[in-house]
Structures are given as C-alpha cells and as structure tokens.
C-alpha cells in the first residue's frame, strides 16, 4: 500500500493519501468520472478489491473480484473523455493502463462508461475492443 509520501499511482503529482487514498477511504467522493476512473486504476495498483466492487454500478457489478497480484500496474494514460463533469450524470473515459506481469508487459486499452447513482459516480462497464 502506498504511504503518505509516495506519489499516487493514478499519475497525479499528489501523494496517495492526498489523492486516491482519500477516495478509497470514503473521506471524499470522486467529483468527476475521470477522478473515479483514476481512483479505480489506483485501487487495482494497491490491491483494493473492496473499493473496486463498491465503485461499480449495482446492475453490472460482479459478485466477487479476485485481483491478479502478479500484475503490477505501472502507468496510466488518459486518452480522452466525454461528459463526466460536475454537472453531468453520464460520462466516458478512454485510457491505457500499462502493467508488468511476472511473464510479460502489457497494456489495457479501454473506453469506460460511468454514471451517477444517488449523486455518486460509479463504473458501468468498459469496451476493450476499441483501440485508438
């Protein structure tokens, strides 16, 4: 788990505890779809399956989630977004998440859909067949 002085895995210059760590702990809600997507990437990076399930839309959320602990998430690239702002109720974020596995390196390229439920952003689903 990152410490207060470690840079947040999502790529901002802030320490984890001042960035995604606050969202993971429930101290603040992600204000935008992109902020939620960044917090979800960070949750994969720090192994927080509970947060990932909690931030998933109830209609598309799996019953359980097992993370591959041999996959280390190393870099996030935001490629673009639509909607997803403070005054929106839906949005998309396209990103590339770079990882290193025990046997290989890889990139997850996804267009993710988000919506608000009870005023909070949640992940609906993603399309990984849409490379740019």
Automatic annotation (TrEMBL):
InterPro entries associated with the record: NTF2-like_dom_sf, YchJ-like, YchJ-like_M
Lineage summary: Bacteria, Bacillati, Actinomycetota, Actinomycetes, Pseudonocardiales
Protein name as catalogued: UPF0225 protein ACFPCV_24815
Protein family membership: Belongs to the UPF0225 family.
Organism: Actinophytocola glycyrrhizae
Domain of life: Bacteria
Pfam families from the UniProt entry: YchJ_M-like (PF17775)
Gene3D superfamilies: 3.10.450.50
Domain YchJ-like middle NTF2-like: 32-126
HAMAP family: UPF0225 (MF_00612)
